[in-house]
Amino acid sequence: MSLSKYTLDRIEDGYAVFLKFPAEEEQLIISQSAMNKPVQVGDRVQIEEKDGIYHIEILKEETQQKRADLQSLMNRLRNKNN
After folding, report:
1. Range name among 9-13, 37-41, 51-55 with the lowest pLDDT average
2. CB atoms inside a 10 Å sphere around CB 63
């Protein structure tokens, strides 16, 4: 598997469901026990599979920017409805 960017969409029944960046249409489902570190919903990550272990690097700046963009969008939507 090549190095690819994903966003963690959700965790269900011990599996992490990632959406491939940027289109976020393709899913990658990984058992949490096969990941080298814990991640949180919304984290933007790079994933590389080596010998059955998924090596995850959290892209902190991209994650923070994505969260800021979402917060800004939520604020605009709230203000629009007032």
Report:
1. 51-55
2. 18
